[in-house]
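Sanity check. The docking grid for 2-deoxy-2-amino glucitol-6-phosphate depends on where the pocket ends up, so I'm generating a full predicted complex first rather than guessing from homology. Inputs follow.
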Amino acid sequence: MCGIVAYIGSRDATPVLLEGLQRLEYRGYDSAGLAVVAPGGLKVRKTTGKVRELEAGIPRRFKGSPGVGHTRWATHGVPSDANAHPHLDGAAQVAIVHNGIIENATDLRARLESEGVTLVSETDSEVLAHLIARAGRPDLEDSVADALKLVEGTYGIAAIDSRQPDRVVVARNGSPLILGIGDKEMLAASDVAALVRFTRQVVHLEDGEMAVLRADGYRTSTLDHRPITRAPLTVEQGQDSYGLDGHIHYLHKEIHEQPEAVARALSGRLDRRFSTAHLGGLGLDARDVAGIRRIKLLGCGSAYFAGLLGATMIEGLARIPADAESASEFRYRNPVVEPDALYVAISQSGETADTIAAVRELKRKGARVLGIVNVVGSTVARECDGGIYLHAGPEISVASTKTFTSTGVALALLALYLGRIRDLGPAEGKRIIDALSEFPDQIRRVLDTEADIAGVANRFNQSASMLFIGRVSGYPIAEEGAQKLKEISYIHAEAYAAPELKHGPLALIGPEVPTVAVVPDDALYPKNLSSLAEIRARRGPVIAVTSRSDIPDAEAALLVPRSEPELAPLLLGIPLQLFAYHVAASLGRDIDQPRNLAKSVTVE
Ligand code: AGP
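Predicted complex below; grid placement will be based on this.
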């Protein structure tokens, strides 16, 4: 959710923090702020709005080091200057930035107020600054550790004290915190995106750990001061992957990156000799696979919809019972964990709080959990028993596109691998491998039809509401298509399994409510045509997304190349991304940072 960044070194921290905040802004963007230690004490600037507004208000003489910065996604208290971070203690000597939720903030606020402390914001985070100041130990790290012992909830925090300008103290519990090791300088941030401009050497803190950063190095320990050693990792992506590369929006760029992203997801993973997938990171041998009786896929939002699609592919190709569930529900329903079940956690960021909680609940109960993750070294990736990295490159726009498609490809590879160990014959395996190999080029061909898709988007962009329908493997694509449209255009959109229409939603159909129908050219094609006829009989406009150029009863058709039935839905998802993009663009929406949302939902 929120983004935090910290710097210590010989440079002026202000431009480093601002650059880091720009890279983190996709995590939350309702207010922003920073604080630096200057010779006369702390200098602080914060504002409602985006980082560019913060930057515009910073005077030239605003210089110092160390410093901390924050970009906010409001949980406690409206977006306002007062609620923006950093938060200070009463004497304005300690400044903190926080990502997470302090669950006992109400009690802590009352306690601090009864001691005469004046709190100036409505946030849960502000208590941290006062608790650190109140601890009053000679070393900031001891004060931070004392303060955190009183706190219940989740945090990634960075703290500075104007009286100790030689250090920044950071700590993590439930919200990501990564150290960046520079040349005589150190950084920390909630996301590597803020670090890669300055260093590729990073260290991931684990929950319950803290670090003291100095210009010439860092020391990591547990909150109760037991020293720990963590080897630095080298981050793959260069800073260039974070640019717009000539596109107006990151979403547009990321949609167009899909041929390369899918090629990377497939690279080295198609085993033509045995007509299977080569997935070295799974850690599952043939005997393990033979013993799997059920597969459950877990994720949130688009990751969950990808899971729904994955379940159909696994059942179809591997004939193992499979289903998907939203991780946010799963974690709270005391799930029965079956010993011969395999669990798969899906998360682009690897930092979604609900997905992490589901993984931990499963691990606690002894389950085997695989992760399908994009961000290397993220929490889900580290805590799972094995998994598949997407290698899709950084996804900056809040709405998932290339990672949805790459996740679908990773799940297809998983289904193929499991299938080839179970009952899927080599000829069938080859059929899937051939179809997957064609994907990058087929996606390119869909992207080439962008002008046509934009034309359809412009015809329907004044609709107040749209329905999305699909059957079986088409249904997850209908869900994802509706999700894309509502997220970035703010047009109300609902997805239904096509046969469910007549059980209720048909009442909504009429000339004003278009239906987007996901119609694969598979065994259910005639059934889908019946649904379209029912809609047309009620004068509802239909936008069909299909590989059939002869589809009847559709006012508009978004066409894709033909693929194998198990994989075709993934291709059908691509035009729906461009459809949502062009509807949103024609309405002038804030496409990369839609209102109320954030890229990584690192709080409950
Ligand atoms: C989709 O466009 C959204 N970005 C959202 O639903 C997202 O898929 C969800 O929050 C899960 O994120 P994750 O993949 O990083 O766990």
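Relevant for the grid: Residues 300-303, 347-349, 352, 355, 398-400, 483, 487, 600-601 surround 2-deoxy-2-amino glucitol-6-phosphate (CB under 6 Å).
Also worth noting: The first strand starts at residue 3 and ends at 9.
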